[in-house]
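Chapter review: from sequence to fold.
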Amino acid sequence: MNIKAKLSREKLTGDLHELLKAHLNLDDDREITDADTFIELGADSLDMVEMVLATEQEYNFDMDDDALEKAKTVGQFLDLVQRYV
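The token string follows.
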């Protein structure tokens, strides 16, 4: 993996973690990992829709709904978003 891609993933990870913490009212010291499921983080289907819309707006793309349904963990969601950015 090249340095640019790694930094891009790190930036995306940090941005998404901040979005999740703010949107789901998680404590700032709550560590979020790629293995965390959105259910474990307390997200419901409305939270997911809002998070997707915020991510699409932030990075200016439209996400495939079918692919989104398969993203159950933070890591899977990051992988999906990284395909678009």
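Two observations follow directly from the output. The helical segments are 3-23, 45-59, 65-70, 74-84. The chain has one domain: 3-84.
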